[in-house]
């Protein structure tokens, strides 16, 4: 392996660690895990009136941040347990979206999704997304 290849590899690793820091990966994973531990039994998401289960957008690739903002805003309006944690996540997602901090997640300012899920499915989507950046 020559010196230029080694420097390229080191530079790539540095960029990935910077991306992970800018994206607040560890913080988001910690908060999301806390919410998952606290959330009650997962009820099915049905978009009918009178259903106590929240239906939240499960984002398409590149639209995660917009959907995470939309979903956490919905949780704030309807899910008052852990309000401080959800507010923190919401602010972090808004900042990342507005400043294009997590490039792989913020290609679109609009939330695009094909399916909706309950709170647990939504939180698991956040967790999987940020764990992938953390690798």
TrEMBL record:
Superkingdom to which the source organism belongs = Eukaryota
Q: Does the keyword Signal apply?
A: yes
Task: List the Gene Ontology MF annotations in alphabetical order.
Answer: cytokine activity; interleukin-9 receptor binding
Q: Secretion signal: which residues?
A: 1-20
Name the GO cellular-component terms.
extracellular space
What keywords tag this UniProt record?
Answer: Signal
Q: Does the keyword Signal apply?
A: yes
Q: Which PANTHER family match?
A: INTERLEUKIN 9, INTERLEUKIN-9
Protein known as: Interleukin-9
Tell me the organism: Charadrius vociferus (Killdeer)
The organism that produces this protein has a lineage beginning with:
Eukaryota, Metazoa, Chordata, Craniata, Vertebrata
């Amino acid at each position: 392996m020559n010196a230029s290849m080694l420097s390229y590899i080191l530079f790539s690793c540095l960029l990935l660690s910077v991306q992970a820091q800018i994206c607040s990966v560890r913080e988001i994973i910690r908060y999301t895990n806390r919410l998952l531990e606290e959330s009650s039994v997962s009820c099915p998401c049905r978009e009918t009136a009178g259903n106590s289960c929240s239906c939240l957008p499960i984002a398409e690739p590149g639209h995660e941040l917009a959907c995470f903002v939309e979903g956490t805003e919905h949780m704030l309006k309807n899910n008052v347990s852990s309000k401080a944690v959800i507010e923190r996540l919401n602010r972090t997602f808004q900042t990342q979206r507005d400043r294009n901090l997590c490039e792989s997640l913020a290609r679109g300012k609009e939330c695009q999704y094909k399916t909706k899920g309950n709170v647990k499915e939504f939180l698991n989507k956040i967790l999987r997304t940020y764990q992938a950046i953390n690798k």
